[in-house]
Amino acid sequence: MLGSKTGSKTLGSDSKTDNIDNIDHIESQDQQIVLASDGPFEAPAQTFVPGPYYAAVEEVMEDMAATEADVAGDYADLRHQSFPLDRRDFLKLFSLSALAGSVKACVPRPVEHMLPYVDQPVDTVPGIAKHYATTCGECAASCGVQVKTKDGRPIKLEGLSAHPVNKGALCATGQASIQGLYHPQRLKHPMMSVGARVLEASWEDIWQRLGDACKQTTKIGILTRGVTGSVRGFYKAFLEGLGSSAENVYFVDSRSLYATVDKAHHLAFGRTGIPRTVLSKAEMILGVSSDFFETGLSPIFDSKNFSRGIGYKNQGGKSLKGRFIQCESVMSITGAKADKRHSIPVGSELPFLVLILSHLLSRSSQLKASSSDISKARGVLAVFKDQLKGYRTLFTSLDSGYFDKLVGELLARPAVIMAGGVATCTQDATRIQLLAVVCNVLIGAYESILFTSESWMLNPLESFAKSSSGVENSTEQGQQQQQQKQQEIMSSDMMRFFGKASELDILLVIDCDPVQSIPRSFDVSGVLSDIETVISIQSFPRMVDTYADYVLPMHHYLESWGDSEAYAGFIGMRQPSVRPLYGSFQAEDMLLWISAAAGRSMGYESYRVYLFEQWKKIYDKLNIADVSFSLFIQNNLRKGFFGVPGKRNKAALMDVASYFSSSGGSGSMNSAGINSWSDVSGGSLKLIAPLDAKLADGRHGHLPILQEVGDAMSTVCWDSFAAMSPYTCRKLGVKRNDVIRIRGKNGGAIEVAVFPMPGVAHDAVVVSQGRGIDDERNTIAHGVGVNPLDVVSKEWDPLSYQMVTSAVDVKVEPTGKRYRLAAMQKHNDIANRSDVYRKVGFSELEHKIEKRRGHTPKNLDDVPDLYPSLDKPETYMHKQDNSSKPGGVEPRHLDYRWGMSIDLDRCTGCGACMVACSLENNVAQVGRDQVNLGREMFWIRLDRYFDGAVDEPGVSFQPVMCQQCNHAPCEAVCPVFATTHDPEGINAMTYNRCVGTRYCANACPYKVRRFNWWTHSFGKVGKRLQDRTPRALNPDVTVRTRGVMEKCNFCVGRIRDAKHRLQRVNVEKHMDNHRIPSDWIKTACQETCPSDAISFGNLKEPGSLVTRLRRDERAYLMLGGDPDHKHYGIKTLPNVSYLAEVVAEDLTDGHTSKGEPSGSDHG
Amino acid sequence: MQRQESGVLALFKHLDEFATAARLVQNKSGFDGHQVYSYASYHELMDVAESAYGPSPVRWLTLMGSLVGCSVGFLMPTLMDYDWPLVVGGKTAGLNSAIPNVIFMFELFVLFGALATIFGMLWFGGLANPRARIFDPRLTDDHFAIYVPGVLMDSEQSRYLRSLGALELKAV
Amino acid sequence: MNSAATTSPASVRDDRWKSKVSDVNSGVLGGVIAKPHPSFYVALALAAFCALLGGVAWLLQIIFGMGLSGLNSPVYWGVYITNFVFWVGIGHAGTLISAILFLFRAKWRNSINRSAEAMTVFAVMTAGLFPLIHVGRVYLAAYWMAPIPNTNNLWVNFRSPLIWDVFAISTYLTVSLLFWYMGLVPDLASLRDRSRGLRRFVYGLLSFGWVGSLKQWHHYETGYALLAALATPLVLSVHSIVSWDFAMSIQPGWHTTIFPPYFVAGAILSGCAMVYTLVVPIRKMFSLEHFIKEDHLEACLKLTLLTSSIVAYAYAVEFFIAWYSGAFYEWSIFKLRAYGPYSFYFWVMVFCNCVFPLLLWSKRVRRHMAVSMVICVLINVGMWFERYNIIISSLVEDFIPGSWGHYQPSLTEIAITVGSFGWFFMWFLIFVKFFPFVSLSELKLVMPKPLKASDQELSAQTSS
Amino acid sequence: MVRCNKGRSFRRRSFFYMVVCGFGVVLSISSQAYGWWMWTPGDTVDDSTQNTLVAGYMPDQPVPFSHKLHAGDRQISCEYCHSGARRSASAVVPDLATCMGCHQVVAIDKEPIKLITEKYRKNEPLQWVKVNDLPDHVRFSHQPHVLAGVSCESCHGEVKEMEKVSQWAPLQMGWCIGCHKENNASISCQSCHY
After folding, report:
1. Residues of C with CB below 8 A from D32's CB?
2. What is the pTM of this model?
3. Contact at CB, B87 and A875, closer than 8 angstroms
């Protein structure tokens, strides 16, 4: 067994004491990552073949077809909510089926079948999970994913712990992507529109027709989202093979940050490439509307590094804490995490950076840049010398002394300025980046934090029009010469698409939805209608399908081969981990067949062959003689990645002042572009339409868990909302849930309910993208919210030619209507409750640590107890007999007490834990109506509290799951022992014993128990189709029926698996280990946490990380009072402890709370 | 059908006369096996009953039942707890958590006591008798009566009863 | 025998009796239960309809799930538990009136104790339904919440207040049922003797063959007194245990030591008010004015007034302690109760339970049946809202602000609540129709004794 | 004093009390039956209830496989075919290839063997009927039991002597718990339910 071999290795690592800071080493090394067998995956599977081994035949039956009819009328009005049964349901009750269902309980035993393999693969044991390494396909960050499959079905995704990008973590979207695999509404058949009708077609017919079409023309183009890796070359080869040009590949993506940052660096250094940002090396971050935690370039990478660099740490008794100051006009979770967050007017990022630049240059002696760089920076500043004064007036709360202090901080320690994000997609987007580049050069960030010359990030939006060969040719040669030429051919694919695409005869739209993600004013549909043949290759129905002549189902990324090259020279490999579920094909294979049908075969049997050829090239470059290519590939497929880091010379700053000259769309650069307070009261606001942190531009809208997790700041789920400053709301006379109408200059209007969001700039109205999908085939997203892009006019950023979605002038007017937003959290402030969420001042903490030094460390468990026998064996053992056979039986209970520690200083509120937990534990998504009633089912919830001034609030996130109290108030009250205390400290919930008195949930002071108000049907969430079929569920966790309580159980299934593994190791190695090494078990939330905020382990193991964190000076128990002063709160003695957030007190503070902003027309 | 003993039923209407009569016939010869009937438990009559039957043994049954209930109320939770000693809310099983047993002791004390009382009342009252003889419907309305078995209408006993104030004599 | 006793002051009070012992059976039973006023049938039909409505709602809830209620997180208990506590509380007055007042030999009890006992039985029966309505899996609850052997080899959790409840409520239901039925036995014999045919057979069966022999009365009286003695502590224990459902959890607003006496007082208050509410109309419907006299009803109102003031005191003490203890969470809840989003219910509760009953200090009000009736109905409303207030306002906003919520009863819950009233009244009205509404044998005891002397006196009066 | 016919009234009354007691007995037995027969609730994943988890369930299988012949007479060890028992939750029903390992040469002329040979050629799995079926809320794993030395027979009975396999143990929770208590194995609820 593979497991046992590696198991013994990890046993040894047990003795290694972990440092808090090298959490990197706590990685599960025992993944049975097995090479995907090549055979079956490429075989076209016309019909779904049941997986190899199922406990019941029902598990593989497609029972969704019956329910699809029920979906038509979708969106229930809330007025019926008090009686959540509509007429149809009511009639259903009296139908025979309901009656049959109610008496079904009395029918005799159902016959269950077993389907063994015909020929069981050698490395497969039914019931034991197999893991595949692959690369996430949801965004260009390309995190490594470990797919846990059981009986041939992927059941859970985890981050690859050895992967350098995500280091074991995965974001909410990555976690949720497995729901996309099983989604019942995935495209299953090729469709073809003949006249006005859409027909199901046979594949042969499709190839025939497409081949014929391609024979007739060479004007063939591909529209796709931003990608890296071999597929770029493949697209090029495909088009060139058909006689078209590589320039007809259009990479269009809503994540335009790649393009703007790339462009800025191109302009600044004369070469493309996005710097790899290693925040762990920074001690000071100035964020200017940055959103690196949620929609940035590589959110997980940044979160991991942020928590190590900026997060509080105690190294050798010395406290360290970086600083993060953010100025932004939206309220992002990145801003929420900032030590100090300032709200600045919409579109004032550039002025802000100009002021930073001017203050930086005033300290020229301290600058960490060469004199030529400084002089170029002076050149930039010179452009703004007239406006400088006006800029200062924009920031009423930040005086020049503040800027000076800020700059002082930037220069005093390793610092970086993170600028721009989805909220700065203005006409200045690239200039902001460019200015940030200049500032970063001045503060020396390119020396230590931003890496452009080794393993830099590649731009997935890099146009083929720019450089002749996408990936390889990132070298310096020829860049200078080409620069002028590139300017002429308009470097943005986006702009080129609108300029030239209508000339095409055939357009393949692959895995993207321009209709949803590009503002209507750009008239994508017009462009698509002009093209004779539009082929939409999607894995999920997209709005673009309406305009397509052919809709071809493609694989989910978990079914595909592929690779990515997020960082230069670093190849993340993608391999299928499941036999295709529906009649879909790999998109690239389809291109191969199209070209073959057109008589111009590319010469590859499949894309996999092409891919292996590309990998072979890299292998050849590596020059490894003693490893054969097949072995090389096998080994690396297990790992999930390979490559040699790209390296190039450093480049010097070029003269960039000219790009700031006022010509060309620099209207918002002066203060006249900023809406004044009186404009605001007239309803003139600026719309910011950022990408949604979870749904992006709507690409992930069909994933119910992402819809359900909702927005972290507002906790609103399943809806769009307009976030506005409470003061602005007051000015406009609207309250929460009031519907406003937002009118754009282009004549479009949307109606959306208001959520007064503290911290949003006074002149901003923020509506996230990703909703308003008007496609009935996508029942999860259909009718959810509105698309703010409807009011966005056709505007470009004049440097990178990306569309403008921020700081759009709009008129806002109340409609008088009301609409109830489904917010999970009804209350926003902490109501002066000091032992719920704790913050501790940095110096106060140091003082406390100093005071404690030499004394016994903090002990949260030292609580007087009426029942001192709790820890004794006879309390739990039926008979007092511990002479168990060595190794023979399971490890003994009393060797464990499971505990968890949550570092509030690290939690960013990204919500990945909620998604991971829900998917691991088969937690149901309930839909908007039920959330509105307060019936969400999350086992781990994210409480969000605002504090401080309404216009510049502090925001705190607190993940709350079952605290696993040792004196659990919930246990004692259960009349039937459905919840009892496990000898290992876990509060065990036995679903099948539960009768649903709900007393435990009442008694729980943390309110973490969740009740199954309904049997959450397998195919639906509310009335929307969903993928809770048994095959999409985790087979290791019981699915709860209605009337049963459920809650977090510390992923006890994983604990049990580890125990069984230890037992196997003990038996096979004749050992007698009693304790599971702590790195064998990771809870789902812990494993996926991008900022390592959650630690889990055995509290009885003195050296374990969680034990030490429980004794940390910052540790406290929720509602646990102050044990140091013999005050024990409600004395529930949780096994979950929290680490207080550390507040850096010596922060530059130029701000005073001011209530209503100055310049108010109240005088 | 069981053999019904014939006898004489003397009906009274006034409590004072009847109470005296009941007391007088109590120890008088020739009235063996007589029964006294009333429609309500007047004190005067209860005093007669007290002297005739002595204190009711129902009390002892009640006590027994209650004591049994009390001990069951203690033993049941304790033994059941030890059968599978589960820890809930930091409270270990069995005697460690015996305080709530008081509740069961009390409740079962009352319950078993009440059941025993009812049982005793029925048992000693000869009740749950589906073939009880109903001499006269007025007996449960507003008439008292003394029934003397094995006596004829024109016997000495009848005359004696009439002398005690019986308003009506009936052969039954 | 002891004629001095019969001319005691009690007989002076008895002057008000216009009827004699011999009128009782014919007056109450008539031709086997007097023909009621037509309004009775209207009331019965209405009650049955409501019960049916509630039954359908419950069935729906069983089929579709608890989601049909308005319950949510954090308000896991709502109207159902409110109803449970309310009905258990209603049940209390019956036992109080029949058992405790029996031991205290309060004579006014004898005319209304039967109705109070019946009310107890039906109220507890209704209350007993609510835990079943309330649980998520009723089909398992009934089985697993009793300590009977099962395939899991797992017993119940004797440390759980809900199990205490199971024992307390089932004991209470059994004992009050026995007590009520025991009192019925002689009256059933009366009914048997007045009826013919099938009725006679059924009543005969139900009366256990009671003949009224002195021996039977002897054991009966002893047993009755013992049962009264056993039932007396139940009056205090049942609602104490129900209150521990709340007091034993650490929820602020619930975790209070005053709860047991506070709940018991509240229960008696609501029970007395309910007795009054029930007896007054039925007394009219069945023309029982001669037997249930105004004195008796007034005594009931006095008891109501007493318990109302106890309850008012409990409210005040609760608030005082919440403030005085310095318990932050507790005090927050209490502020919320009075001023928060659920304050309406709080003030309804205060006014109905503490303010309006003050009118009963006036004898004129007590004697004015319509006004008293309104007050009693208001007390019932107030007591229902007291439980609602205790349950909901403590749950909506407890420790962690992040999990605060709101609650609004759903139509299902309202239908089931209405249904419970229908269910209760339906049984009560059926009982009234088929069983004697006043205890015949006990009523006769408090009426003028049928003495020879008084009889002659009476005949002399009538002849003159 | 007061005469009463003790014998007769005693009989009458005892009849009444016997009826009452009989009613109580019937009630408790039927509640027991309710528990044993109707409700071993498994209404979890597929909403199906595993009502008749009683010993003796002996369904027909697609192939009349005789454990008596294989495990008894021929003495093939259990884990030869059920190879997962030692390392997986599932004991594993053997793949057809395992059957074919022998039956390419052994007894190839018999009807059932022809059937499985045919199936094997067509790459079709056999659809066995599950005999020992636990409710979906029980997370049973073979591995810890086998490794702790629990013999197969202690739960599956003398399969070696079964021509046609039937359920031997009641597989009720109480039965599991009894063994766990005896052997000092974990009786924490979470050992099997989560």
Report:
1. 148-149
2. 0.87
3. yes
